[in-house]
Amino acid sequence: MSSYEFTSESVSEGHPDKVCDRISDTILDSFLARDAQARVAVETLTTTNLIVMAGEVRPDGLVSHEEMEALAREAVKDIGYEQDGFHWKNAEVMVRVHGQSAHIAQGVDGDGDTKDEGAGDQGIMFGYACRETDELMPAPIAFSHQILADMAQARKSGAVQGFGPDSKSQVTLAYENGKPVRATSVVVSTQHDEGLSQDDVRQLVRPFVEQVLPDGWMCPEEAFYVNPTGTFVIGGPDGDAGLTGRKIIVDTYGGAAPHGGGAFSGKDPTKVDRSAAYASRYLAKNVVAAGLAERCTIQLSYAIGVSQPLSIYVDMHGTGTVEATALQKVLGTVMDLSPRGIREHLGLNKPIYARTAAYGHFGRAPEADGGFSWERTDLADAIKAAL
């Protein structure tokens, strides 16, 4: 179809699942800050005044259980939870994190000489890029993220009073000839202070939507929904239990592209669920930045204990200026797509992950300390030269 409507949603850092992602990635960062080769797979559960962390790590004991508890509390404090049903200081914290399985380690570890490091698990990973925004992201998810990120910044700075940490957004865009042209509906649900009416919250939210959407794109008034169920005072894990890794479409492309089998948060970069998804995005973004396609989807597949990807698949959705088969052949030559090669090329063995836990892993600006390195477009010339 050339003309259609497409919808994506985002959730804020205070959404119960995102609280869990943030805690898991904060634990990961604490390990990598002490040992760049640390192995971490930590999941988090939250509910009313309870935080549970479980998983496996190596070296065991590098970060103590007491430190993990303190880190979890600090993450919740930074998000902004100080309510009766979920408070950073008063919540019970349980830590059930233990050493990594030796059977997993034996398939993953290299010996630094004859045996290269294998993938941390089997799986398929997808990357995507398109020309709908300057960040080469699908517009619906980019706008959904930005609305909530701006609201959170205003809440935490004190610029706006009345917002709570938990919120969700949803943006539907009309496409004509394959390009987005306007919003047909916008939904924002946000936790708020007691005593605010639905109309009060609507007026607080409106400027954030209008400043994110391009001029003239605002949806009709009757299609602008703010807290459509009415009151939203009880939020976060007190209102709904949270789990690490339950918002994988929010983390990636808002449903505009496929998603692989695994979530990202709480996993060190030997886990290809994370690192190869970043590499796939990096390659797809560089293909589009190089002018080789308007849209590009890339799939990588791996087997546990095997170093190189089993397959590389490219789809340019009929917009490519080169043959997909030619591109498939060169992508593995311009970048080492083994787990070690990805980590070294993108500099992933750093404490850069807590910041990815909300508002998307993709479409963000590369940072000086190596954060969001997979958003660079420094491989575009090498891809063109290799064709």
What does this structure look like?
α4 packs across α5 (198-212). The longest helix has 19 residues, at 16-34. The chain contains ten helices and 13 strands. Helix content is 32%, strand content 24%. Mean pLDDT is 95; it is low at 111-115. The strands form four sheets. It has a four-stranded mixed β-sheet, covered by helices on one side. It is flat, with a radius of gyration of 21 Å. With 387 residues, the protein is of the alpha+beta class. β2 and β3 form a beta hairpin.
State the secondary-structure class: alpha+beta
Q: What strand order characterises the main sheet?
A: 1-8-9-10
Q: Write down the secondary-structure element order.
A: EHEEHEEEHEHEEHEEHHEEHHH
Number of helices: 10
Question: Total strand count, please?
Answer: 13
The stretches of 5 or more residues where confidence is low (pLDDT under 50) are 111-115
Mean of pLDDT:
95
Give the end-to-end Cα distance, rounded to a whole number of Å: 31 Å
Major sheet size, sense and barrel closure: 4 strands, mixed
**Helical content band:** 25-40%
Give the overall silhouette.
flat
- What portion of residues belong to β-strands? 15-25%
Radius of gyration in whole Å, from Cα?
21 Å
Name the descriptors.
alpha+beta; 10 helices; 13 strands
SSE topology sketch:
Elements: E1 4-11, H1 16-34, E2 39-47, E3 50-58, H2 65-79, E4 82-83, E5 86-87, E6 92-99, H3 102-108, E7 123-130, H4 139-157, E8 163-176, E9 179-192, H5 198-212, E10 224-226, E11 242-243, H6 248-251, H7 272-289, E12 295-302, E13 311-315, H8 324-334, H9 339-346, H10 380-386
Parallel strand pairs: 3-6, 9-10
Antiparallel strand pairs: 1-8, 2-3, 2-11, 4-5, 7-12, 8-9, 12-13
